[in-house]
Amino acid sequence: EKPYRCGECVKSFVSCSELRS
Asked: Which GO terms describe its molecular function (predicted)?
């Protein structure tokens, strides 16, 4: 899975911080 942008529809609309984690 590639990194998503902040605000994109991912699994449960995770936040930027969670995406970078």
From this structure: zinc ion binding
Neighbours of 20 (CB within 10 A): 9
pLDDT single digits (tens) 1-21: 566 666 665 666 666 666 555
pTM passes above 0.85: no
Q: How far apart are CA 10 and CA 21, in angstroms?
A: 14
Report how far residue 6's alpha carbon sits from residue 13's, in angstroms, rounded to the nearest whole number: 9
d(CA 21, CA 15): 10
